[in-house]
Amino acid sequence: MNYGPLIFLAALFALSGSWLGFVVTPSFQLGTLQQTNTVGAGLTYPLARPGLAQQGLQVYRANGCVYCHSQMVTQERTLCEVVLTEAGTNTTALVAALHKLNPNYNQEALDAVLKSLPKTVVFNTTKTKADAAVKELTQTTAKAQVVITPAGPDIARGWGKRRSVAEDYLYDYPTLPGAQRVGPDLANAGARLPDVNWHLRHLYAPAAEVKGSTMPPYRFLFELRKAGLTPSTQALQLSPGIAPSGWEVVPRPEAVALATYLASLRADAPLYSTPLSSAPTASASADTNAPAGGANLSTNAPAAK
Amino acid sequence: MSNPMKSSATGENLAQVPVWLFILLFVLLFWGMYYFDQNSGWFNAHVYSPYRNVAELQLYQPAGGGGNDRGKAVYENVCALCHNPDGNGKPNQAPPLVGSEWVLGSPARMIRIPLAGLAGPVMVKGQEWNLAMPAMGAALPDDDLAAVLTYMRQSWGNKASAITTEQVKAIRAELGGRSQPFTADQLQQVP
Which ipTM score applies to this complex? Predict the structure, then answer.
């Protein structure tokens, strides 16, 4: 019997099906992904990681960090709040508008709101309702703004400010989103812990830096050197009792690369696909005497440091 | 093909399965794969982005809020090294921008300074500076330059009109790639 055509067809279907599913479809979806601009500041995002951090990614990969750490923040919903920033001149109308937005506001509560501006006056609403509320408040010569906050369990744990999107991984090769979370998510490790030396100390003795950490120490990334008369400038500043006395702990190049990589991890730039408000300013208008805080820009900084 | 019973007498049962059935099976399989791919994550909608379509994403974009993030970013990248992030300048390096008559005055004068540079003695807030500013803004796109100049005119207590991209574009065309820096006297001629 001639099974040739049947085998040929079966093989063709199996191979072309998986090729369409695993190669062609993702390529259509993400193949043309390019650098984008952050919302507001218009900075190019993402920037390629500096060379040492790029090497660190390979150390991360080689040591299997990805088996316990994910690099992907999920987001379940988006919360909108209305923040009143300026009371304006027509207080009576403003009080009426506020009462209409939230009947629980009595006169005393309203007075308290007006004294401590900026103050959130509407919590946990939809964008459409928030926009309507802002419009109503603005009509009374007051100033208000909508604050958009991504929310979800990962964000509540402090693992990020927004969900991860494909652009975050544009310069990672290979991308290491991970699938298990024995340890915390590292998508924003560098934003939380920007200190390279902290990462080095943590790699040498995790439990000494994070109480109750179950992470195994990566001591083979370091070497012990007999402490000379003058300590090495590269030696770790460990708490007493961790390194054997008379010895100093010096990171090998792999450890430095890995720590640099970890400190470079941050995916919190505001992108079009991840709407998010910057921290509400005391006043939304540009022409005030308030000094322009430097803290705001750091949230817009691209991934590479 | 139309009558499978007839040819089944030859005994080649397998050859009797019509080809379209395979194709149908393949299409069904592919649709099934696609369906499960669309609903991977155990059919839990929370696995996916909270935005279902582009219109919803557009709705959730934060409003400008009157801030000038772009101007601030350009300022801190390009200008702040000499003029200081707070706009107060640095001694022997750059005059202050806060309350400076050059910043708050005529837009046409102010736009010329970053486009071609400014050299020689210049009076700023009653103090004479004699330095050379290179054409820092010549390489910036029009909209970035407009944003950063607006940022200078409206930050740190400065209150002056915004500078538009069109104004910058017009003056850049007027200068036509001038490489000589202006002197303060030349700028004073500009209305």
Answer: 0.71
- Provide the residue range defining the domain that includes B90: 69-189
Cα–Cα distance, B146 to B141 (Å, whole number): 9
Residue A78 lies inside a defined structural domain of this protein? no
What pLDDT score was predicted for residue A292?
38
| Mean pLDDT score, A84-102 | 81
The minimum CA-CA distance between B91 and chain A, rounded to whole Å, is: 21
Question: Total domain count for chain B?
Answer: 2
Of the given ranges (A42-56, A262-276, B3-17), which has the lowest mean pLDDT?
B3-17
The answer to whether the CB atoms of A13 and B66 lie below 8 A apart is: no
In A165-194, the residues whose Cβ lies within 8 Å of chain B are none
Residues in A touching B142 (Cβ below 8 Å): none
Across the interface, whether the CB atoms of B14 and A3 are under 8 A apart is answered yes
Q: Which domain holds residue A216?
A: 37-72+186-264
Residues B41 and B100 in one domain: no
Which residues of chain B make contact with A270, given a CB cutoff of 8 A? 62
Q: Examine residue B113 and state whether it is found in any structural domain, yes or no.
A: yes
Minimal CA–CA distance to A270: which of A292, A295, A303, A294?
Answer: A303
Contact A286 B156 (CB under 8 A): no
pLDDT of A257 higher than 90: yes
For chain A, helix, strand, coil in percent to 5 are 40, 15, 50
Share of chain A above pLDDT 70, in %: 91
Q: Is residue A90 part of a domain?
A: no
Question: And the tokens for A27?
Answer: 């390529």
Of chain B, the end-to-end C-alpha distance in Å amounts to 91
pLDDT-based confidence at residue A156 (cuts at 50, 70, 90): very high
Q: Which of residues 207-246 of A touch B (CB under 8 A)?
A: none
Query: Residue A64: beta bridge partners?
Result: none
Interchain CB contacts (distance < 8 Å): A and B: 106
Q: Is residue A294 part of a domain?
A: no
Q: Is B64 domain-assigned?
A: no
Q: How far off is chain B from A229, nearest CA to CA, in Å?
A: 41
- What is the per-residue pLDDT across B127-176, written as a single tens digit (0 to 9) for each? 888 888 888 888 888 888 888 898 888 888 888 888 888 889 999 888 88
Which residue is it, tokens 């400076």? B100
Other Cβ atoms closer than 10 A to A36: 17
CA distance A269 to chain B (A): 13
Let me know whether B112 and B171 are in one domain.
yes
For chain A, the domain total comes to 1
More confident call, A92 vs B112: B112
SS3 assignment, position A146:
strand
Shared domain check, B171 and B98: yes
Which residue's entry shows tokens 């100390």? A201
pTM above 0.80, yes or no: no
